[in-house]
Write a structure and sequence with these properties.
The complex is a heterodimer of chains A (80) and B (286). Chain A has one domain. In chain A, 64% of the residues lie in helices and 0% in strands. Chain A contains four helices and no strands. By secondary structure, chain B is an alpha+beta fold. Chain B has two domains: 93 residues, AhpD-like, CATH 1.20.1290.10; 119 residues, Pnp Oxidase, Chain A (Roll). Chain B is 36% helix and 19% strand. A seven-stranded antiparallel β-sheet of chain B has the order 2-1-5-6-7-4-3, sandwiched between helices. In chain B, helix 2 runs antiparallel to helix 3 and helix 2 packs across helix 4. The longest helix of chain B has 23 residues. The chains are: A mainly alpha (80), B alpha+beta (286). At the A-B interface, helix 1, helix 2, helix 3 and helix 4 of A face helix 2, helix 4 and strand 7 of B.
């Protein structure tokens, strides 16, 4: 259980609601971090744009990105 | 995440000690060094490292790599601070149940509603904060330097020969002669434990919160564990430390390009020959 409760995806704005539905299709449930970001819709829009921008930039091997991301997360104590 | 992208599980699991692992190629090692230098407090990206980056990646790719690392720092610290738990979307192969729920990064391009399996939100298996490598070092060294906070705010640093791994998230030490450490923890649970391999000049810094037990089932269980493992001294209480953050401690010698074998040779020579720790009998000259 996160320290703060995420939003109810059913109560999200239309764009966020569509994102949560897509996550549910892919992974079975909305991602908890996203439900938290979505408490502040302007912030959530911003981070989604950043994620999309990084993803679509596409110069780096996705496998290398996966390694780097996991390493950084572990250093920061983010246990997946 | 890793498997869907063609990253072997062993590689993902070896990341905690990537410098010593033979699994990573030169490009990966360089990117990981860059990530470490951007992320670990007290480190920096010096000109020599940046020049090596520019010899491997073009400037556009460096910008993408830098933004990736910077954003993963933001994302993972957000998740950590708010204690966002795993959603179990990635597991090592031997723990998978035949389905891999993750999709490759990029498979949502052009779909504005869907989100890629994003940095820090990929929900890998919750394997605990203490990796196998961290646990190995603690078990081998059998000595932790435990820092607690005194009532006046000053630090209290005390070596504990009973420092051990309790489980994947907790360290433990026993109060055999540690009245100050225990009293501090009772008043303020903030604690840091450093465990160092003095030959490899590497180790780990564990920050977390400690809970003291001087009776009850937990106390009995921990004391019984110490007895089974050879601790005969009277134990007045035990402290279980819930590790919230684990960071590597690495000698600057590695940043100057030394290999672990070179560092080991240097310090083995120092302890064995300069100090004569390997000799039996009386010290030389006596």
């Amino acid at each position: 259980m996160a320290r703060i409760e995420g939003i109810d995806p059913e109560q999200a704005d239309p764009a966020s609601k569509a994102a949560f539905a897509a996550q549910t299709d892919k992974w079975g449930a909305p991602l908890v971090a996203h439900l938290l970001y979505a408490r502040r819709p302007t912030i959530y829009r911003g981070v989604r744009a950043l994620w999309s921008g990084l993803d679509q930039s596409g110069l780096l091997d996705p496998a290398l990105v996966a390694l780097v991301n996991r390493r950084v997360a572990a250093i920061n104590g983010c246990v997946f | 995440m890793g498997s869907a992208l063609g990253v072997p599980d062993e590689k993902m699991l070896a990341l905690a000690d990537w410098e010593a692992s033979p699994l990573f190629n030169e490009t990966e090692r360089l990117a990981l060094e860059y990530a470490d230098r951007m992320t670990i407090t007290g480190r920096d990206v010096d000109d020599a490292v940046f020049a090596r980056l520019q010899s491997v990646f073009d400037d556009d790719a460096i910008v993408e790599l830098t933004a990736t690392i910077a954003w993963e720092n933001a994302s993972s610290t957000f998740n950590r601070a708010l204690r966002v738990e795993s959603q179990g979307l990635w597991k090592p192969a031997d723990a998978r149940s035949g389905q891999d729920a993750l999709h490759v990064v990029g498979d949502t391009a052009g779909d504005p509603a869907a989100l890629p399996p994003l940095p820090g939100d990929r929900g890998e298996e919750a394997v605990g904060i203490l990796t196998d490598e961290m646990q190995r070092v603690v078990r081998e060294q059998k000595l932790g330097y435990v820092a607690t906070v005194c009532p006046d705010g000053t630090p209290n640093l005390s070596p504990k020969g009973t420092t051990a791994v309790w489980d994947e998230n907790r360290l433990v030490f026993a109060d055999i002669a540690s009245p100050r450490s225990v009293a501090n923890l009772r008043a303020n649970p903030a604690v840091e434990i450093n465990v160092i391999d003095p030959i490899a000049r590497k180790g780990w810094r564990f920050k977390g919160r400690g809970v003291v037990y001087d009776g009850g089932a937990m106390f009995d269980e921990v004391v019984a564990w110490y007895r089974r493992n050879g601790t005969a001294s009277p134990i007045r209480s035990v402290a279980l430390v819930d590790v919230e953050r684990a960071l590597p401690l690495i000698s600057p010698a590695y940043e100057r390009g030394a290999t672990e074998a070179e560092v080991r040779r240097r310090w083995e020579d120092y302890y064995l020959h300069t100090l004569g720790w390997g000799r039996r009998g009386t010290p030389e000259g006596c």
